[in-house]
Each structure stands twice: as structure tokens, then as C-alpha cells.
Write a structure and sequence with these properties.
Layout lengths: L1 H6 L8 E7 L6 H10 L7 E5 L6 H7 L3 E4 L4 H12 L4 E5 L10 H11 L3 E8 L6 H18 L10 E5 L15 H11 L4 E7 L11 H18 L2 H29 L4 H43 L1
Parallel strand pairs: 1-2, 1-4, 2-3, 5-7
Antiparallel strand pairs: 4-6, 5-6
Helix pairs in contact: 6-8, 7-8, 9-10
Length: 311
């Protein structure tokens, strides 16, 4: 709130850099920039981070007076890292250059971040979901669910191409993920370093031009979420392993138990396997409860430390 007052009404939109990753978006980029300018942002706040497009993307962006930079390396993740490196403002907004995310939501993301002190605010695609291709919609659903399970969050849309981050909240991020896993890594870093993620419901429009994300990328993202979990929250794997033993153990136990008591058939080997599964699974379950408790404690302490430092 203090920050809002200092910046004056809507003045806080000056403290933002908007980065637009593009790869051959000549049909859309002009409209995207036009829409952002119409929201009252200045040309110098916008940076197009181009992935060596072979069409007129860079020319169009330059003709509209915004900064155009060729990205380091390859892929969308490197484009976002390049943008973060060049941004000199407190907040950075990333928006896809394909005209699917209406720019009118950018001020709402900033307002939410400033007023409620979020480290990241995601534009969650709630309206116009029919404009997301079906296969992507299914993929998004499962990947978001997977992320929520792994990191104990309740986000609606981790993979959105419109989000805001507080630059300082990423100062220790490792940025190891490539391509379309950049959103997952940013969210992981924020939640595991004691930061907070907020969401603003937004509308998604159908794409202009050809999409770059293929089905294979979806599997890459899934694999990367597992890699991120391994690095940032391994305790959850003990829990999953416990469940992988307990569930078949319980089924086998009920089966052999039923026969033992009601039909008189005694399954010795099956019964023994059930007991081993249940006993091992139970031990792992207790271990995972301790591990998750420790992780939660670490998060609480990190958050507390941050609060003390900021106060
Ligand atoms: N700079 C850069 N931008 C990319 C690259 N790949 C995709 N993009 C941009 O990232 C955004 C998202 O890509 P898109 O194909 O729309 O993926 P989807 O919206 O997730 O299906 C678009 O603006 C693309 O132009 C890349 O390798 N480099
Ligand atoms: Mg897109």
C-alpha cells in the first residue's frame, strides 16, 4: 500500500518492463504492441526479445519504436532470461507475442502484485478456454495438477504466457530449465523460496499465426516438473513411493484377508507380500510426513526471515 501511495494513482505502471518473446510473429506482434501502448504504457517500457525470426517480426517491432533485442541462446526460456537481464524495473511482465493474451489485463496484474504484495501474479486463462487447442487444454490441466501436487499449491494455470514477476524475487533463481518449462521453473523458485503467487482470471483469444508448442513439448514440461521437484521438493517422492507400496499392499491384504476369514482359502505367499508392502509402505509414509513437515518448516522460516528483512 505504501508503494502505491508513493507512485500515485496508476503511476505504478511506470515501474514495469514488459517483455515479449517472439519467434516469427509478424502477423501478431504489431497488434500486441499497439494494444499495450493503448493501455498507457510507454514505448521504452516494452522489449521484444526475438528468437532470430526469419520473417518481419523485428522490423515491425522496431518501426513501432520499441526496443528489440536478439535473445541469448535458443528457446523461449532463454528469451525470458535475456529479458529479465535487460529489465531495470521492480516488476517484469512477460506476455506472448501471438495476440492471445489481451493487454488490458497487464494493469490488473500489476495492481494485484503491488496491493497484495505478491512475488508473482499469473494471468489464469479462465475465459475463452475454447480458444486453447483441445490437446493443449488437456495437457495444461494435467501439468497444472501435477505442479500443484508436487509443490502443495493450488494454482489454476501454471503455464500461462502472461505473468508478472518481482525481479528481486528471482535474484537467486538458477534458471536451468529450457524452452517452455520457464514458467514452471519461475513458479517453483518463487514457492520454494518462501514467495507468494497470486492469480488474476483472464480471457484467452485464439492465436494469430502458427504455434511453436508441439505435443512433445508437453512431455518435456512434465519431465521438467519432475526434475524441479527432485531439486526443490524431494520429500514428495517418498510420499509417492509410500503410496505406490501401500495401495497394492492394501488391495492384496483385503483380498487374502477376505479369503482367510470367509472362504477359508489361505494364500501364504500373497499374504506375506501384502504384509511386506504394507509394513514398508507404512514406514515410508511416516518418513515422508517428517520430511514434508521439515520442508514446510523451512518454508515458514524463509518467509518469516523475508518479512523481517523487509520490515
Ligand atoms: N524469443 C523466442 N520466442 C519464442 C520461442 N519459441 C516460442 N516463442 C514465443 O513464445 C510465445 C509462446 O509460444 P507459442 O507458440 O504461442 O506457445 P503456446 O502459446 O504455449 O502454444 C510466442 O510469442 C512465441 O513467438 C523461441 O525460441 N524464442
Ligand atoms: Mg501462444
Amino acid at each position: 500500500m505504501k508503494y502505491l501511495e508513493k507512485m500515485g494513482s496508476r503511476g505504478y505502471i511506470d515501474d514495469v518492463t514488459i517483455i515479449i518473446p517472439t519467434l516469427n510473429e509478424e502477423k501478431a506482434i504489431g497488434k500486441v504492441i499497439g494494444e499495450i501502448l493503448a493501455e498507457g504504457f510507454k514505448k521504452k517500457q516494452i522489449i521484444v526479445i526475438d528468437g532470430h525470426s526469419t520473417d518481419k517480426t523485428r522490423e515491425i517491432a522496431e518501426s513501432m519504436g520499441v526496443k528489440v533485442i536478439l535473445q541469448d541462446g535458443k528457446g523461449k526460456a532463454n528469451a525470458v532470461y535475456t529479458g529479465l537481464k535487460h529489465a531495470r524495473t521492480k516488476y517484469v511482465v512477460v506476455i506472448d507475442g501471438d495476440y492471445t493474451y489481451p493487454a488490458k489485463y497487464i494493469p490488473l496484474l500489476i495492481e494485484k502484485a503491488v496491493k497484495e504484495d505478491y512475488d508473482e501474479v499469473i494471468g489464469a486463462r479462465v475465459y475463452g478456454r475454447e480458444n486453447i487447442p483441445l490437446i493443449n487444454r488437456v495437457g495444461n490441466y494435467f501439468l497444472t495438477k501435477m505442479f500443484n501436487l508436487m509443490f502443495n499449491t493450488s494454482l489454476r494455470d501454471v503455464l500461462s504466457g502472461l505473468y508478472l514477476v518481482k525481479k528481486e524475487s528471482l535474484s537467486n533463481a538458477l534458471f536451468e530449465m529450457r524452452g517452455f518449462s520457464v514458467e514452471s521453473e519461475i513458479a517453483t523458485h518463487i514457492v520454494t523460496s518462501g514467495g507468494r503467487i497470486g492469480e488474476v482470471p483472464i480471457e484467452y483469444r485464439s492465436r494469430i499465426g502458427k504455434k511453436k508448442l508441439k505435443i512433445l513439448h508437453g512431455f518435456h514440461i512434465a519431465l521438467d516438473i519432475i526434475r524441479l521437484t527432485w531439486r526443490y521438493n524431494p520429500a514428495i517422492f517418498i510420499l509417492l513411493l509410500a503410496l505406490a507400496l501401500l495401495i497394492p499392499g492394501a488391495i492384496l491384504g483385503i483380498y487374502t484377508g477376505y479369503h482367510y476369514f470367509f472362504t477359508g482359502v489361505k494364500y501364504y505367499v500373497k499374504g506375506l507380500i501384502a504384509m511386506i508392502l504394507l509394513a514398508t509402505g507404512f514406514n515410508l509414509l511416516i518418513l515422508s510426513i517428517i520430511a514434508i513437515y521439515l520442508k514446510r518448516m523451512e518454508l515458514r522460516l524463509t518467509r518469516q526471515l523475508r518479512r523481517e528483512r523487509e520490515a
